[in-house]
Task: structure prediction
Amino acid sequence: MPHPLLSELAAMLPASSLLTDPEKLAPRLVDARKRLHGQALGMALPASTEQAAQIIARCHAHGVAVVPQAGNTSLVGGATPMSGNALILGCDRLNTIRHVDPLGYTLTAEAGCVLDDLKQAAEAADRLFPLWLGSSGSARLGGLIGSNAGGMQVQRYGNMRELRLGIEAVLPDGQVFRGLHALRKRNAGYDLKQLFIGAEGTLGFVTAATLRLFPAESGHATALVAMESAEQVLDLFAQTKTALGEVLTAYEMINGAALGLMAKHFPSIAQPFETTPAYAVLIALSGADNDTALKERLMESLLATGYYDAVIAQDVDQSKALWGLREHIPAAQNRQGPSIKHDLALPISAIATFIDAAAEALQRELPFAQPVIFGHVGDGNLHYNLGLPAGADLVDQERKANSLLFELVARHGGDISAEHGIGRLRIAAADAGHDPVERALMRQIKAVFDPGSLFNPGVLL
Ligand SMILES: Cc1cc2nc3c(=O)[nH]c(=O)nc-3n(C[C@H](O)[C@H](O)[C@H](O)COP(=O)(O)OP(=O)(O)OC[C@H]3O[C@@H](n4cnc5c(N)ncnc54)[C@H](O)[C@@H]3O)c2cc1C
Result:
């Protein structure tokens, strides 16, 4: 006997918009890291805001939980339903780019548009949508907003919060919040649309958003620089930021252990240094100048800093290879074996002392764990992962590592989540480490939007 909600939805929706077949549902019940294996009544795929509102109103009437899911690439289990009394609400069919306004530098799109498609639509209008993640081919606008995604170019262009202007969303009772404007300035009291960004699907279902665009870039330059210490990484960052200003688009750090894993598991991606350095830094410039001019600026600024052990990509293929070294690290780590993953936020000036303190503490408490450190260091964001020997008890080691590292992060003025969010996997850490007043206010806000706690229960709060 199907759940009465499913019978009602089956009468409302075309057959292809309601998934209940266990085989089709299966990939939607597992998170990207394969840590969670969930359950749900089924999955609905609305094709319009009105349809989404009708589905959500029916869920509200039946007291069925709603789990918004977009590309399902969340690294904290934010889009995985864990209750048999939940409906997954997918964005796949909300995939229209509604409007591109090159004059106003905006693009309005529905929540199911894939990031790569948004970027292409902007490019077709000679504009740039700069968000760029390792998951750009799968992540969708609804999830990018739900998780306030960051990525490689936050250094220059900001994260999702800084890149969108308006939002349209369906609230947990089925009402539509119509905040889909393209206004850079709107001073009209509480800025409610901000609440949906990074809310991890707990306050409503985003159906569309208006995004900021930028001038298309005419040129690029990429360099990889060998460094002896984390102090040098930060020193070079400060010097290049001062010298290059806004053309500095990305500043990514890779430690020697990560380079070692790349050499082992992706030997076809050439490494330019004779011996593996303690750290390498990937620097990217982009802007209105052409490639040659930007390469010259990059070379001049590196020469002025005194860090000479560097390669500057001479063409697009070389640039892609250097980026490949950075982008394939998570895959290399997966090939190597089990690992504990962290997405830490730190004040930039505290990064080197944090790395030293963490190495010392790990040597004492978890000597077999290998720190594989990489990430958006120019944004104060370290992916601080720990490689474990095959067969290690991941859950037990993770508990120990988290308690040790999160305490150090707090002591250095940082946070346990820079860009991946809290999801299901970081709730205990957020409750333990975040300001209790902040957590209590969030619960009160949640109660205003969703008094029955039907939207993504068990995520974020
Ligand atoms: C290989 C790889 C690389 C990655 N690199 C980065 C990176 O560099 N930077 C970064 O920030 N993240 C990164 N991520 C994490 C992930 O891709 C991002 O969090 C992304 O924004 C999630 O988008 P999604 O469409 O997959 O959303 P989902 O995983 O489907 O959902 C993410 C969250 O948003 C909510 N949500 C989904 N749709 C809606 C909606 N319509 N309305 C309201 N809430 C919604 C979900 O409930 C969930 O809580 C990476 C992930 C992978 C697998």
Remarks:
- The longest strand covers residues 219-227.
- The first helix runs from residue 4 to 12.
